[in-house]
Amino acid sequence: MAVNAAPYGKTPAGRLAGRWVPWSVIGLWLVLTVIMGPLSGKLSSVTTDKAADTLPAGAESTKVAVLEDSLPGGNDNTFVFVYHRDSGITDADRATVERQYDALAKRYPAKVVTPDGEDDEGPRTRPSTDGKAMMFTLDVSTTYGAPEAIVGPLRDAAKDRPTGLELDVTGPAAVDGDMEAVFDGIDLQVLLTTIVVVTLLLIITYRSPVLWLIPLVAVGAAALTAMATVYLLVKGFGIVVNDQNSALLTILVFGVGTDYALLLIARYREALHHHENVRVAMIHALRGAAPAIVASAATVIAGLLCLLVADLNSTSGLGPIGAAGILCALVAMLTLFPALLVVLGRRIFWPAVPRFSTAVEEKPGLWVRLGAAISRRRWVATLGSLGVLGVLALGLMGNTGALREQDQFVSAPESVTGFTVLRQHFPELGGQPMTIFTRPAHQERVLDVVKGVPGVAVAVPGETSGGWADISVFPKDAPDTVAEYDTIKRVRTAVHAVSGAEAIVGGPSAEHLDTEETTSRDEKLVIPLVLLVVLIVLGLLLRAIVAPLVLMATVVVSFAAAFGGSVFVFDTILGFKGIDYSVPLLAFLFLVALGVDYNIFLASRAREEAVRLGTRKGMLKALSATGGVITSAGLVLAATFGVLVSLPLVMLIEVGFLVAFGVLLDALLVRSVLVPALTLLIGRRMWWPSRLSQPVEELPVGQRSRTDDEELALQR
């Protein structure tokens, strides 16, 4: 029955629905945007991809990176020039290599490290044993710029070569430069692509020429506020923001914010049929949707903050960054977004304007028919869903090995192909150089020890400064391979045994080794913590124990299926050579925290309806009421994460595809079929130990609803 707005205005909710409230909220957001707008543009100025800022906090390679940054010339950029000719290096080629080395060394005067260990007056280039290649290593001071700024001019400076003499500029700094080139402008690219994708999906969803713009405006304001907030967090607390986390912030805010908008609009549309006053209708919509939205946001925020216990700086930094983004999205979608809808009135839904009516005809649709089918075939729906998920999970038997840095690029740049050429012609220098810092008095002893370690090709003493001496070590094996990692471990064991040397081993491959090992430890700590936190949030929301356990189990099974299916795609279809070390933890976090959202939306509505209708009818009513909006929300969230698939970096493609696939799997199968089927099978016990779980005949007469009495009569 419709509600008259006049007496309603005397209640607290009615006063909140006063005419001045929406305009005040919009005004406050305008002021906030004016303040936060300039700060949001400064976020890019505090993003960092320095090794010391993103590596594990307590790792040995991190200590080396920090020490390099503090010593004169310690953080020079190392480039390797590999010249090669298939028919063999000619005298003219040798002269060209020597001339170009002299020119580059003069242009970029810095320490030069050669595998031969020659002094400054000796030869600085090295021929290959097969006579088909020459190489030299050039260390360029950071005073000349970052790797991405240097690698281009270096390649241009060496263009003047005899016909047929090929050159690849590779080495750790070249790889870093090519990697940075991938991230150059990525924030703007992700932002614009996300806006386009969300806009198209909203237009398709609402089929309205105007309504799609309102969620976009609110989410845009949330994104601006989130970026400004993260900037302030960086300045105030020193958290780490890298390009990857900055891109994920944009995706999270737009994806989650749009989800909240879809859920609220669905409730608001329902309320408009029962309330003539749009402000009163919005109050009722918020009453129905806000608890689920807040619980959803709390789940994601709590899950993200669990990352603070991670040792990997880039992972722990994502915790407060993502949490700030979700919080800004929550506040914007529960304040600014409703205010905009109320001010614009019913006409914003044109052409399908919801009319005020005492009787709203509910037409059986897809979700009603699906619910009826699940109710008739509960076991079939349950076992069929689990069967599909189980088959997908079999993909976990595919290639889940760690992805090497050289395999991160969709299209291999020169720095990556250069490593292949280097290993082909200089097999004794197949790996990336390690850096050892030791006390000067023990340098010779450490050097002798390292030379005797299996897997070490050459060890070269370096400069002494600041109370430390450095040694460059060239392993025999290819970069980021098990064999090279084993060599690094043996070198560490050997140098640590030199009493008083205080030797520490770092370098690019050592950093990757420490990062993988730290990520593995972080997973064992963060994943159980996330599960526990999400379980607690679900328990508080649903006031039950069984339901949260069931919902959590479905999310975990869904994650395994999504991961398995994605591994099959990565390995068999896309031909990726492994899984980036950061993908499993990030994907688990996003899919558990975000995937459980849809179960929260469904289960909270089911519990609400179960109070009136009983568990079976309540779940079917919840499925029919939320089916369309949750499916739309899943499509939007999947599409926003799918934006990452368009980027030329394997790690981002893997995260984007896995999360998008997992969200769709969760929204279309787990939430639509498996959870309703399990609820119908378990029945009232789903809500144990709350009152809803008790058999009808055990309830006091005063606590029975009409539905309870009807069910009891049927039982009798």
TrEMBL record:
It is found in: Cell membrane. It is a multi-pass membrane protein. SUPFAM superfamilies: Multidrug efflux transporter AcrB transmembrane domain. The keyword Cell membrane applies. Pfam families: MMPL. Residues 112-131 are annotated as: Disordered. The keyword Cell membrane applies. The chain crosses the membrane at residues 20-39, 186-204, 211-234, 246-268, 289-310, 322-345, 379-397, 525-542, 549-569, 581-601, 622-645, 657-682. PROSITE patterns: SSD. Keywords: Cell membrane, Membrane, Transmembrane, Transmembrane helix. It comes from the Bacteria. InterPro entries: MMPL_dom, Mycobact_MmpL, SSD. GO terms for cellular component: plasma membrane. Residues 224-343, 572-680 form the SSD domain. Its main location: membrane. PANTHER family: MEMBRANE PROTEIN MJ1562-RELATED (PTHR33406), MEMBRANE PROTEIN YDGH-RELATED (PTHR33406:SF6). This is Membrane protein. It comes from Lentzea aerocolonigenes (Lechevalieria aerocolonigenes).
